[in-house]
Amino acid sequence: MNYLQKQFDALLKYWPNEDQALRDVRLKSFDQFKTLGFPTKKWEEWQFTDFSAIEKTNYRLSWASDLPQIPDQIPGQIEDCHTVFIINGHYQPPLSDIPDGVTVVTGLDHFRSNPELYAINGSKNPFLALNTSMMNSGVHVLIKPNTLIEKPIQLIYFTTEFSDPLMNHPRFVFHIGKNAQANIIEHYLGVSTLSYFVNSVTQVILDENARLFHVRIQEEAATGSHTASTHYEVKSNAQLNVTSITSGTQLFRHDIQLNLQGKGAEAILNGLSLTDNSQHQDQHVVVNHENDACQSHQLFKYILADKSSGVFNGKVVVHKHTKQTDANQSNKNLLLSSTALMNANPQLEIYSEDVKCAHGSTTGQIDPEELFYLRSRGIDLKKASELIIGGFAKDILDSIKNENVKSYLNNKITNWLESVLNDG
Amino acid sequence: MLKIKNLYAGIDGKEILKGINLTIHPGELHAIMGRNGSGKSTLANVITGRDNYEVMKGSILFNNIDLLGMSPEDRALSGIFMSFQYPVVIPGVNNTYFLRAALNAKLKHQGMKEINAADFLRLIREKLKLIQMDEKYLNRGVNDGFSGGEKKHNEILQMLTLEPALSILDETDSGLDIDALKIIANGVNNFRNNDRSFLAITHYPRLLEYMKPDFIHVLIDGEFVKSGDASLAFELEEKGYSWLEA
């Protein structure tokens, strides 16, 4: 905690002329963070994850002077995208390609005109409070109303090799205007061999009749810790399609909150977690059905190798007096070793009569019958396992329409599998 | 080609096969008939090397190579194929991709060049025609959403593609209507030649009307109680199995 106080003071000093309203939000949020403290095993929603490594490591904020020489080849770039680069927390306008109909500004600039968006009310998530107090990075992306952006916009959040442990608290806002349509890839990557910490908050707003494909890729280095909150607000008749693939870090915690606010709002929420060694990934999802005729379809899968562990906690809440709700939630987990561990807890809270709901969770190992079938055709054990595990992961990518994005993720899954199966 | 000597085998410590002797020469089709639980599928599973089955005594030689102790994939690569009684559904694994991976494993084993996607598609279309199977089944997951009959077609498609020396047909007739049975039997008959051998396992003599066996063996309680030529099938149809039971 000590290091955070020091860093917070340094941040206030670094921006002495900062907008007073922003300063007030920072101070209030830091107080809130101090009151909450780091989660402990006694907190029900946090009990399966140990945050002591983040608490103990002496991270420092990344300053403008920490912008490295820009590497020639920044990894992770997907073909034929509008790319926005953020390196060690610093947005790089000259490198970035922003199409017509889209504005990208830093979060701090955006705050001035939209302070209410950044206030957090009664949150019990200390990482959200910490982000709001220290937000030092990130951008606001606005897709103007009635605009169709064909090519995906890829935001690459890249952490380079560094000489001491860095941390960043990026704040993203993706605002999709009325009748607009876009494809945004929020992509976290790191190559640092030293411990680092990314604590991000992303707010996504879909105005009436908007359509967004949001792909979130977390492939931080194994030395990284990544905590994140993503909040979606979906207005009437808007359609949200999310695919979240996460394979990096030693420690990952992601809180997703999806609010279907307008009548006829729809969301598909797909997630794939790939864990190996002693990695730990913890995802909490809350879907709120707040209006009539809304649909939500969730599918979260985990593939866990070696001594890794996963947590999935999913809750669907159907609010009072809502009609014609269609909600389903499915969680499926594949354990590749006897030492991998999964903790799954799907929940439904229904306060309305007119609902169609389904939920379920399964955890198991590769089916020996499937393995035998493939092997009896001359396919060796390793290739057979690869086919079956790849097949298990496949439907997560089904709702991605863009072929370049799909092929990037397919390659990623194949490479991950190869490395895991070669270890074993 | 296949030589089984004094085979005792079972599962979970329970002895199911009790002293099986069977020799299959190249070009022969042998049928094994018997009731449920007589050990027919156990024999098929022991030959193909399914986990959990244990051999207590005896030997299985395939082209003079000892099969026991070999992995299922090595048995397959040496030329053994089984059409499953209950083919497994593997969602997410594309049927064409799977078939090509299997063929390429075989080609690689034989020191031959792997087949590319375009050539494979040409090849598989030829095979589909032989058993009147629709091309749409190629692009689904393996057996995913297939009816019982379609799964059996998919098994025979694999046999025709991989061209094994010994094909074990485990209850291939079950789940097939009479028209489908004729098509499948026709596919198998056209595939028969002097080098290829077959072991057909069935409850019902009907299959053998369309797929003429050279030998029939009746299996009761883990033992062959009677062997004979194709005419034995008609005898069984008339009298059932009870006259053979001790």
What does this entry look like structurally?
The complex is a heterodimer of chains A (424) and B (246). By secondary structure, chain A is α/β, with parallel strands linked by helices. Chain A folds into 2 domains: 2-249, no CATH class; 367-424, no CATH class. Chain A is built from 8 helices and 21 strands. Chain A has helices at 2-14, 20-36, 52-56, 107-113, 126-134, 368-375, 381-394, 403-423, and strands at 60-61, 82-87, 90-91, 102-106, 139-143, 153-159, 166-168, 171-176, 181-190, 196-206, 211-219, 224-234, 239-246, 251-260, 266-275, 280-289, 295-304, 309-318, 325-335, 341-350, 355-365. In chain A, the strands form 2 sheets. In chain A, strands 1, 4, 5, 7, 8, 10, 12, 14, 16, 18 and 20 form an 11-stranded mixed beta sheet that branches. In chain A, strand 2 and strand 3 form a beta hairpin. Chain A starts with a helix and ends with a helix. Chain B contains 8 helices and 12 strands. Chain B has a single domain (28-49, 81-244), classed as P-loop containing nucleotide triphosphate hydrolases (Rossmann fold). Chain B has helices at residues 40-48, 72-77, 95-109, 117-130, 148-162, 178-191, 206-210, 231-239, and strands at 2-11, 14-24, 29-33, 53-62, 65-66, 80-83, 90-94, 141-142, 166-170, 197-202, 215-220, 223-228. With 246 residues, chain B is α/β, with parallel strands linked by helices. In chain B, strand 4 and strand 5 form a beta hairpin. In chain B, strands 6-9-10-3-11-12 form a 6-stranded mixed beta sheet, with helices on both faces. In chain B, strands 2-1-4-5 form a 4-stranded antiparallel beta sheet. The mean pLDDT of chain B is 94. Chain B is 35% helix and 29% strand. Chains A and B meet through helix 6 and helix 7 of A and helix 2, strand 7, helix 3 and strand 8 of B.
